[in-house]
Specification:
By secondary structure, this protein is mostly helical. About 75% of the residues lie in helices and about 5% in strands.
Length: about 140
């Protein structure tokens, strides 16, 4: 959802704020933004502490380093976005992409640390999706 809202934000910047950048600028900035999102997502995921709770679910918790990686990534992206486009139109898309990658990294790291216990997390997520689907109908 955040990625869709970020895409709409960029679209608005072009139509309502009359943002103008060349195709080459967009490709370069977009590539560097995705690379930054992936790198900082991985750094944040690796800063997490994982453990298994009393219900057998794999849990995670960030620390001060996780927060530092968030601050650096957001501040860096905002700074470059301001310099490049004169706006912060791509921030929401950046946050959506980095959260998606971080989630994947966390799932992978948790699965490596607790390969059997992570199955309980998958079942809980699946049940939650089914409940949400039932409540919509």
């Amino acid at each position: 959802m955040v990625i869709l809202m970020g895409t709409a934000s960029i679209s608005d910047a072009f139509t309502k704020q009359h943002l103008q950048i060349t195709t080459n600028q967009a490709l370069l900035f977009g590539s560097l933004s995705v690379l930054s999102a992936v790198i900082f997502a991985a750094l944040r995921a690796w800063s997490y502490h994982f453990w298994v709770n009393d219900q057998g679910l794999v849990m995670r918790q960030g620390n001060w380093l996780t927060l530092v990686w968030w601050v650096i990534s957001i501040a860096g992206h905002l700074g470059v976005d301001r310099l490049w486009t004169g706006s912060s139109a791509t921030l929401l898309l950046y946050v959506g992409v980095t959260l998606l990658v971080q989630r994947g990294c966390v799932w992978w790291l948790a699965g490596r640390a607790y390969p059997t216990e992570i199955k309980a997390n998958a079942l809980v997520q699946q049940e939650s999706r089914h409940q949400r689907h039932r409540s919509r109908n």
